[in-house]
Amino acid sequence: GYFCAALALALFRNNILSLLTALIFLIPIFVAVRLEDREMMERFGEKHRKYVNNTGALFPRKNIGKFLKLLFFLKGDR
């Protein structure tokens, strides 16, 4: 959430320093993701490896078209 807020602020302010600040927010996020993945591999082993191969760390990796369609074109009918 912090990265999205910082990125939105940078875009709103149209300022390169704000954009750099937003990008700096990514560093601890990536570190935390790597540490969490390592811990999950120790706990769940092959099950977690399969999960990682099918999902993105921060954003959806597979079926991005379906994801975007869900975000922007879903009219409330399921």
UniProtKB/TrEMBL annotation:
Alphabetical keyword list: Membrane, Transmembrane, Transmembrane helix
Transmembrane portions of the chain: 16-35
Record protein name field: Isoprenylcysteine carboxylmethyltransferase family protein
Lineage of source species: unclassified sequences, metagenomes, ecological metagenomes
